[in-house]
Records
---
Amino acid sequence: MNITSGGAISVDSEAFRGIGERLETLSWELVRALDIVRRTQHVLESVSEPSLRIRLAELASREHRLEVHAGDAGKAATGTLLMADVFELVELRAQQEALGVGESAEEKVLQDRIDALIASYPDVEMRADQLVAAWEGGRFEGLTDQSWDDALAAVGVLGAVVSPAFYIFLTPWLTSRPVGSTMGFLRDLALKSDRGLLPAGTRLQGDPPPVNVSMVRSEPVAPAAGLKDMMTRVPYESTGQVAVEKYTMKDGSTRFVAYIDGTREMKPGTKEPWDSVSDWEMYMERRDAASHEATLQAIAAAGARPGDKVDLVGYSQGAMIASHVAMDSPYKVGTVIVAGDPVDPALAPDQTLIRLENGADPVNGLALGGAAGGTGSPDSFTIERDGTRESPIDPHLYGPYVETASQADASQDPRMRALRERYFAELGEAVSVEQMEFSAERP
């Protein structure tokens, strides 16, 4: 499992710059200590007292060590500060790409800072380009390298030997790489359509589709206590497709957490809103879909009013819905937790995005690896896990994502610690939590 800041960036550039500045301070302090030792040596060399002069050899050894450490700290500080600038440049360019090139004050500030970073050191721009290029080269790693292709090739060869008459027409296909080629086609389709990244200001178009939403269950529950706890509250294989929790806090205020399930029906023409039609409408056409409209209705039916704080947890299609609701809804969306999300939203600096990604997940691959510089607040991060694959779709299944969340909960990564101490501790202060489950269908 790997926890990063998202995209090509593995660290918070400002935190990284802070480390560089502390290393720089350490280097200066070592240089000062080195100067003190050298002055002490000079004084002792002029003293005739043998008991004092005998320390000169020891001081010479200290001088050498200080000189080496000061030089190492200085080089480390320079390299760290340079990489902080590189990381920041990648982040700023990602923000600029999300906003679009224009003449707004925000875009001008971004460009001024980009120009300053490029001018600060000759290698900054080149290193930023190399960092993004390396990320782009590996963002689909494992997607087309499918173990099933090896198994199919073995079946083809064996079948051709055992029963040539039966397998003669299938052998060319079985001895090729059909699964990897299919995954490659999906990758190329995502790249060509360029729908995986949602630029700032993205809104689903069209009128809200008709959909009927009803509450099927309501009961008190304990506050959510971790990522696994939240993932298990997604109504996977339940009656409803959306669960909404109403948190009543000590001061009487309320806040909400909505849990949204993934695609339930691939065949079009049924009453199921969580189908391939909604997938296509939201991903390819960026049009309002029945499942998106049903989610908004469920949140409102749970008691949320415009301006209320609503956090979102989504799996698969539910993750895509959560991304769109976070970018465009009447609610104050603070924290968004998505698993297997086919899109990457451009969230505001006061919104925290937690992405769960399983290696070689073909649905998550539609997000194109996310934005090179990440998105959302500095507290946002991405959790990536490599797992075993018994079939090409295995990495996208609900169970493996619950396991990814469980492993993340056990992590001592500072970003996970901050999430526990900041977010889940805050939810834990609720005096009561009511969970409501909603079912939706097309009329």
---
Amino acid sequence: MVRDLDEPRRPAPCESERTRLDPFVVIGGDASPRDQRDLMERPFFSLSKSPRTKPILYRANDVEVQVFGMPKHGMATIWDADVLIWAASQIVRAENLGLTTSRFFRFTPYQLLRGVGRPTGNQQYLLLKAALARLQSTVIATTIRNGEHWRRRQFSWINEWEEMSTHSGRVEGIEFVLPDWFYNGVIDRSLVLTIDPAYFRLTGGIERWLYRVARKHAGHQRQGWVFEVAHLHAKSGSLARASDFALDIRRIAARQPLPGYRVLIEREGRSELLRILPVDLSTVPVQKLVNRLGRSGARVSADQAQTLSADQAHQPQLNLWPEQQNQAANLESNIDSNSSVLYGVQVRRSAGAGFRGPVHTTIAPHPTTSTAAEEEPSQASGGVDRVPNSERSKR
């Protein structure tokens, strides 16, 4: 049969990636929450619940991260990242049980919502679908974990997803496909850390991000880690002004909401520093609600600044993870976290030396225990991360 040339050409059907992958059917039961190292400190997500379309453009040494959100959905948020944490947790648990995993997930919404400590009502199902839409539409380009023969990889957090529902509209299952970049970063155990399940109860975008930074860098190290606040602002990708971001950090230091860590504001000359120290690392869920004060990026007066925080988020969430001691090793830190300009300063500090007078401390120093296997390579008094001189001169 000869095809009429005037007949409109039909587009070739797009083959689903799921046809080439064996499904990983999520089994019942809870899994200890695990996070992917590369996502724990770089600015991969919006820290605000307001839709963000302004790109994140981050570069430090040879590490680049670019994140683009589509106008229809906005950029994936740090709360949407709970889906990826849950997926990583399920992959690690399944492999521990000797099961075969895949980038092609098949699960029920109930399993995911329960796993990240959220209610399982109809409204939460709708919010979950909105999160999946943002994860799929967000485009990431990065040089992290790229081989020597190429510079940048581009992907979305979810390649495709589909919900399976009855004629009445009841959602009975969801399928999605994770990108290679993320999946390979999870099956490599050296790139995964166990996190405290109380993380899901943190209500502020900046405090959620700060906990992940603390877990990645301070880990179980007795001496903790030190960051320059201005450097943290650059690493966060936050749209808040530097002064508002610093206010957020001070309020977090006053409330001490981070599970397993306490944070102290210190000063060295004109620089404002944040010291992160581990305390007893426990995965017992927080029993009291975290104070929710203010809004990220909010412009407040000097009087209001005493009572408002810029990182208000969402309603507190239930946490249904089992109690389990956090034993994941933390053996390395990211190259972009340590500026070589401070090498001389670090050499001059003795092992027990502290910085001059903290601005405020709300909790007395707490002794900690750690083993060499759990510590990152320690420096004189913990790592000190600062903005490079070239960036400092611009401020």
